[in-house]
Write a structure and sequence with these properties.
Elements (H helix, E strand, L loop, with lengths): L1 E6 L19 E5 L2 E5 L3 H12 L3 H7 L6 H6 L6 E3 L5 E6 L8 E7 L6 H12 L7 E6 L3 E5 L32 H4 L4 E5 L9 E8 L2 H9 L10 E5 L2 E5 L6 E2 L5 E4 L13 E4 L13 E7 L2 H4 L20 E8 L11 E4 L4 H11 L22 E3 L5
Antiparallel strand pairs: 1-10, 1-11, 2-3, 4-18, 5-6, 5-17, 6-16, 7-8, 7-17, 8-15, 9-10, 11-12, 12-13, 14-15, 14-16, 18-19
Length: 392
């Protein structure tokens, strides 16, 4: 299913200067981020002020319902709203210990169908062949990506021999950067369950689990607004942030922590031998230009805090070879002993809890905040993922 977010039109998009407002000095009044023009004469203002003064400020504040922070909404989510991540979809990468001897482990959730499945197949094959073992982190570009794999592959700072690839790898085309089987996905698209109405405090329309079907479902989405500079539609599909231009194809988005496949110039699409993760502002311009295959769900700090490379594109130079972080092992979690398999679950993006969580991010009203933002980028609405405790 898909949860979609559309911003309320800004004041500049509303009609101004009409006869309705002739002779008035329109005051722009925020009513829960739904903007309204109001013309108030002096008598009305005086009456309103007198009325307000009759009610102590403390009493007015006490009458307001307590607003929950997004984290509090997630903490209160019922067990039924959490979805278990299969061990077959988890990749466990163990790095060499840090300078203090502390272990470093990174857990990656692999992308589910229908996205990037050829590359995901290759990554599992690489891991099961032990191909990543003994390689290293070779590139750390500030506010961009951390990249790991064969230090001699597609590295302008290296001159060594490329490591031979295992047999059985799939070769993917550029068309596979997106999923075009929207007809098959349409049954899982969500439509308006909670919509903006006058007087509501939300400035967004949140589409959550009112299920649509087939062509009618797609038509409803196509007739909706909600574009950003990168795509007309920004959605969530089964726990993943995705986007679309016209609902004829859908693609995953380059948000913080997403994992992609390094490649050379087109038509090369990469095999999965080189992987990277986003460690800075979401580089959405990479969407549909590189395959996204997963996301880091634990241990991102072990990749984002590494020393930056000074070579081209942030690669470590020959003089900086000691900065490369060795990769000890990479394993598919389902291949580990049962006691060693990490267990994770994500908050269903089809749930009412996620809809409330997303709306709270778009319009923060908890005590620290003064002015609700009135919207949020799809990458700012990070899907909550949590580790499941033993026996949980």
């Amino acid at each position: 299913m898909v949860v979609w977010f559309a911003p309320t039109p800004s004041p500049s998009r509303r009609r101004e200067g009409s006869e309705t407002w002739a002779g008035c000095n329109p005051g722009l009044v925020a009513a829960g981020w739904a903007w309204h023009y109001a013309c108030m004469n002096k008598a009305f203002l005086a009456a309103a002020t007198t009325l307000a003064l009759t009610l102590p400020l403390a009493a007015q504040e006490a009458a307001k319902p307590a607003a929950l922070a997004p984290s509090e909404i997630v903490a209160g989510a019922p067990k039924a709203d959490w979805v278990a991540i299969p061990a077959e979809d988890l990749l466990v990468m163990t790095l060499a210990p840090d300078a203090d001897g502390k272990p470093r482990q990174v857990v990656i959730q692999l992308m589910p169908a229908p996205f990037s499945q050829g590359w995901v197949h290759n990554i599992r094959l690489f891991a099961r062949a032990g191909w990543y073992d003994g390689l290293s982190v070779n590139r750390v570009q500030d506010n961009y990506v951390t990249q790991w794999g064969d230090p001699n592959y597609d590295n302008p700072e290296a001159t060594g021999q490329v490591k031979p690839l295992p047999e059985g790898l799939k070769v993917m085309s550029e068309a596979d950067y997106t999923a075009s089987n929207v007809d098959e996905l349409a049954a899982d698209l969500s439509f308006p369950l909670m919509q903006k109405t006058p007087g509501e405090s939300s400035g967004w329309t949140v589409y959550s689990p009112s299920m649509g079907k087939g062509d009618a479902a797609k038509r409803d989405l196509r007739n909706s607004s909600g574009d950003d500079p990168y795509a007309r539609f920004n959605l969530f599909y089964r726990g993943w942030p995705v986007a679309s231009a016209d609902m004829t194809s859908i693609w995953p988005t380059h948000c913080y922590g997403m994992v992609g496949v390094g490649r050379n110039y087109s038509p090369d699409t990469g095999s999965g031998a080189e992987l990277y993760t986003v460690i800075g502002h979401a580089p959405r311009h990479l969407d549909r230009n590189i395959a996204l295959v997963g996301r880091v769900i634990e241990g991102i700090e072990h990749l984002s805090s590494l020393p930056r490379g000074s070579g081209a594109l942030g690669f470590y130079t020959a003089e900086e070879a000691a900065k490369r972080t060795p990769i000890l092992t990479v394993r598919v979690a389902s291949d580990l002993a049962p006691a060693e398999q990490p267990r994770f679950e994500y908050l269903s993006t089809e749930s009412g809890t996620f809809a409330r969580y997303a709306e709270a991010i778009a319009n923060r009203r908890d005590p620290f905040f003064i002015v609700p933002a009135g919207g949020a980028d799809v990458c700012n609405i990070r899907v909550p993922v949590r580790r499941v405790a033993e026996g949980g």
